[in-house]
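RECORD TYPE: inverse folding
INPUT: structure tokens
STRUCTURE:
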């Protein structure tokens, strides 16, 4: 059985996911005063992207979707 969350992306993919995660967290802070639920959703997405970057794992690739990086 394969190890759960086995790394499946390279350095470029990790950097891209890290940048997206930081951008989503920044957007969450900016949107929070407009609508708190949208802020929570953006923050959750950003945190997940940062998790993917830190772990070197992509959920889409784990599900069989071919991604560029």
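DESIGNED SEQUENCE:
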């Amino acid at each position: 059985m394969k190890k759960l969350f086995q790394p499946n992306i390279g350095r470029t993919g990790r950097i891209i996911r890290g940048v997206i995660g930081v951008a989503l967290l920044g957007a969450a802070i900016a949107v929070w005063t407009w609508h708190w639920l949208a802020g929570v959703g953006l923050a959750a997405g950003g945190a997940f992207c940062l998790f993917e970057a830190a772990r070197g794992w992509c959920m889409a690739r784990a599900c069989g979707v071919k991604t560029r990086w």
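NOTES: The chain has a mean pLDDT of 93.
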